[in-house]
Design brief:
By secondary structure, the protein is α+β, with helices and mostly antiparallel strands. The protein contains nine helices and seven strands. The protein has helices at about 10-20, 50-65, 75-85, 95-105, 150, 185-195, 200-205, 205-220, 230-235, and strands spanning about 1-5, 25-30, 90-95, 115-120, 135-140, 155-160, 175-180.
Length: about 240
Amino acid sequence: MKQLEANNFASLHEILCQFRTRKKNWIFRGHSDVSWKLLPKAGRQPYCLIEDKPVFESWKRRAIEHVRILPNSDWEWLAIAQHHGLVTRLLDWTKNPLNAAYFAVRENHDTDAVIYAARFKWTVATEKTHPMEYSGVATYWPSGIVPRIPRQAGLFTIHGKPTVPLEESLEHVEELVRIVIPKKSRDELLRELSYYGINAGTLFPDLDGLSAFLNWTIESQEYWNLKSDEADSAF
């Protein structure tokens, strides 16, 4: 697996340009800690100690009272479950590498962060298989069943064996690249991403996202040096 390093926005942009000029079916994922494996939540402790299928079925029976539009398939149900934090065998990715960069550096971790860039061999044919019966690893392109998916240019990978890290099952990928962001560069990159419109307010199109963005501007003192009228427009 190829590894690169981005120390600032300029070097990250230079690295990302190579994914534009080559085959364009690259997808991206950000990790706040470089040591984290590419594992869906169903493959992590303690969730890997039980089967995820009965958990999903139980969730679905209860969730129906909370949805306004019924999903068309169990694939859509699973996408909604993943969106709302349930343990699933889906892993979040995005087509936008700057979105992945934001998720890599948004939390205050005292570690290097990492962006993964990947090209997968297969896209799952959802009309031919059930998500709990798929045995390999493939991309799954959901509908915009929840607003955050299109806003984040989001998609998923489905992992038939969720306890096996993607790094140990490379037969499912065409290419996998790690872009390491040194911990000393995290804060500045987060500020630069916000300047270019990549922040909690744009990626989470709801009141939670707006509140998180405004809280961050205060915590980071992003606009404290502006005049009062300038600060009002910045917020």
